[in-house]
Design a protein that fits this description.
- The protein is of the alpha+beta class and about 300 residues long.
- The strands form four sheets. Strands 3, 4, 5, 6, 7, 8 and 9 form a seven-stranded mixed sheet that branches. A five-stranded mixed sheet has the order 1-12-11-2-10. Strands 15-14-13-16-19 form a five-stranded antiparallel sheet, with no helix packed on it.
- The longest helix is centred in the middle third of the chain and has 12 residues.
Amino acid sequence: KLVRSKTAKGYKPVDGAKTGAGIGTSVTDREQRDTGLRAQLLNPITEDEAEAYIESNDWCAQEKFDGKRMMLRKSGEDIVATNRNGLSIGFPDVLAERLSKLDDNFVIDGESVGETFYAFDLLENADGDWRKSPYRERLERLQALFGKLGGNIIVAKTAIGGKKRTFLAELKAKAKEGIVFKDLRANWAAGRPASGGSAIKCKFWASCSCVVSKVNARRSIAIALSGKSVGNVTIPPNHAIPAKGQVVEIRYLYVAGVGGSLYQPVYLGLRDDVKAVECTVERQKLKLKSVEDQA
């Protein structure tokens, strides 16, 4: 466990030394951590633009998880986790123990949320490289290999056809971060396209009116509801910096829990039609993150 943790941070054992004895040798060369794997990155769309993907039977939908992007590669007894840039990273022991029980070698892509890994793509398995196969085939093979594994390895729920609209409503009702649409006909490609792409993401945003409680340095303000802080937000260059006591409109993804701060706040501007006394948690009806995501 210690060796895996340290090597993920850029250290390596000295050749010929006993296990862990050379763990203090620093790896300064980036390539010594580079696994060669690269993630497929998604371009964003608005909720209005999502309608076209919901209507098309060529696209499926999955939850946009609020975790850490992770690819997992098993080669023999060796299991390596990488971040979106292909660098090796540490990962929970419970995942390693679960995956080590599989005989097949593989490369899968997914999202790590705490000690749970949500798999949503299969790039390689014992039968070969599937990157050039349509996503529909890759998804079917992923479900066949990992669908019944259970425990902390879960294949992402996928909605196809008319089920996508209901799935979208369910995600919004549970205050999830967003939805991802994937082209069932498309092969896999690393990196992010200049625009569009075969996999795109749509975040669910909410907004609320807050009172400026403090003007910070570097074009930032502290904001509050019911007299309690809900975080800080940067003022864009095309907006004047509001004064303490003024009411401002903030767009955000969610609040982690009662008394928490706004997650990914974006300043929209002043609200001269909302009074400061209306800026309470009760009146603003904050979008709270679902209980299961906080577990």
